[in-house]
Specification:
4 copies of one chain form a homotetramer. Chain A has 8 helices and no strands. The first copy, chain A, is elongated and about 70 Å long. In chain A, 47% of the residues are buried. Chain A is an all-alpha fold and 213 residues long. Chains in contact: A-B, A-D, B-C, C-D.
Chain lengths: 213, 213, 213, 213
């Protein structure tokens, strides 16, 4: 209960605030999927009307997955953080600000999927969130000295590469938005798949007991 | 504070994110129950207007209970999980995606309670959520090796049976939706009752101190 | 990390789910307070328009306090609970269902403050929530055997009396709603004040270190 | 699991409830940023329409940061609190009531940025939140005796000064609102910057391991 001397406020509440913001950002989009309103006697049209909602359903799924990508990333990173400081807290608030902006930029893209400005806003939002997460990794593993002691430097290197994979693809997608919007759109859809696949960084946290000597 | 070597990120944040999504999914439906708007001088109509809201009240209660069924199920299952990996995290995000879809499918059913398409969407949503939960049990108790060591295999068997009880009834309800919609509707209403009743799996976690030797 | 044998799933997630539902129920009502919309050039009317919102502001404050009363009550009670079972989990889901219904019944009362049906719905909602909390106390301290061992029986007796204070006043308010609605309304406003004042039950948890021998 | 004798209900759930309210208050404002609706064929206007949303974007960012200021402040203060009592719980509920009022007062200011009444409501909301936080510090470090034993009195003094910095500037802004509204607006925008910068109080929690003897 008594914090060790010299340690700052812990990370528990940063995690709790983050989980709250993620949970809200993830579920807000279902509010955009409205139950079709039909006049009495027209119920025969319901299957067609529900079918017409498919872009909304797709937008809901994609948005949920992309928010999930950031949740997993921040979760794994914070797991190895042992304490926080003011700069880390505020970088996390900036990160959450970008996360809770996702329902807007996803809705914009869902409504105008081939408009360059919608593709741009979406890409800039995702790129900034990725860069803030990367900046946190650099700060916490470097000057901030916030991670557990004795961590393998390859964890930071591989984790950083994995985080930057997103902004790299997003930057390409932003540029392509002005020339071939449909390619830009496809790039955005591919990124969550890349992140759901396991990566080399997982070796550092995905040990099964059988692996231990 | 230092995680044991070889253990991945814990389950604490999976639980926190889940509780956030469940809390929002549970409370979103009250937004569908609107206070009746009456012209000044017509207040005598208020009791009648409030009475006419009963299908909304009923939908609110049923939806809350069904979400509660999944919360209890995931809660008990996660309780015995000792660590997580990337696949488990993502299966949980898929599970939460289906949970936060419930306000939509419940609202659809509440508005069109005897339309086959509404009964289908609702049943498919519930069936998928049950199957993901069952898949998590299989993975965590098998290849993932995520549960506490030394757990009784009957816990997994009985827990799995209990989880599959829902999808079994829901599948029947989906088929019946096209022939006798009212029977389909009754089947959906029965399932929460089945789950609220204690089951044989409870023996493995519902021990009272007096039971101990 | 390994739960002691014989203990069921803990209370941590019951608390987390409850805090999520309470937080949402508490903040939903601010959505009812709308920024006044004025035509360009009519800004001089803004002070008057904001002033006219006072019943909304009052409803927001009262609703926040009443939800707070239940949060404090459940918080203190759960604090001494050491484990949970299926019945306790479900009684808690019923309790949360009544809590997240409060935004509706408060909004109904805010709009029709002197209509018997609004006063009734509000009173029944509060009474049921209080009775479920009381039932949990009886069950957990009796057949459920869920509390910490060695607790002072006076804690249960005084805590129970304090919980029942609400339903007692609410029942009177429900009856009076049909004869003198304004008295009923005043009774509702008085109850949060009663609960905010310290009670005799506090002696059992409000010990200052100086009190210890 | 067994609380030490004499300790009241812990602070864990106060933190959890607070994080829920903060997360909701932070994300509610994105609901005010609506995707522009365009007729088919008018998509060329989208960049302009998105650009016109800039005051909404700005309001979102400022509101997020100001809520973040209070979150960081309450987080640091609660971190050193070791137990709670009824008065502390209720002062925290009052604090959360003011926090979840922020989406309204920020929206009011966003719509009428130079109207004295909007500047006043906003300033009074922020001032009250700051004063409640300060009152909690006084109570917990004095009569309530709620902090960890052996804390440096300079922590309370510097922390208190830092908290009061806000209400001091806000009071000036409220007065200036009636004479030079634009100066009042600028003062509000400056405060989050002041709080994001590190302060002397950080010395008491921002120790790096290298600093230790």
């Amino acid at each position: 209960m008594h914090p060790p001397p010299g340690s700052g406020p812990g990370k528990g509440r940063i995690e709790a605030l983050s989980d709250g913001v993620f949970a809200i950002a993830m579920t807000l989009l279902i509010l955009d999927v409205k139950v079709p309103a039909l006049e009495p006697g027209q119920e025969a049209l319901l299957p067609q009307k529900v079918g017409e909602l498919w872009p909304r359903f797709l937008g809901y799924v994609v948005s949920f997955l992309i928010t999930g990508v950031f949740w997993v990333g921040q979760h794994v990173q914070l797991h190895y953080v042992r304490r926080s400081d003011r700069l880390f807290m505020w970088s996390n608030i900036a990160f959450l600000m970008l996360i809770s902006f996702l329902p807007f930029s996803t809705a914009l893209l869902g409504q105008y999927p081939l408009q360059p400005v919608a593709l741009c806003v979406y890409g800039v939002n995702l790129t900034l969130a990725g860069l803030v997460l990367y900046g946190q990794l650099l700060y916490a593993s470097g000057p901030g000295n916030l991670f557990e002691p004795g961590m393998d430097p390859r964890f930071f290197a591989l984790g950083g590469q994995r985080i930057l994979m997103g902004p790299a693809v997003y930057s390409a997608a932003i540029l392509l938005a002005f020339f071939v919007p449909v390619v830009s759109l496809i790039l955005y859809a591919v990124v969550p798949v890349l992140y759901i696949l396991p990566g080399r960084v997982d070796r550092f946290w995905h040990h099964r007991p059988a692996d231990r000597p």
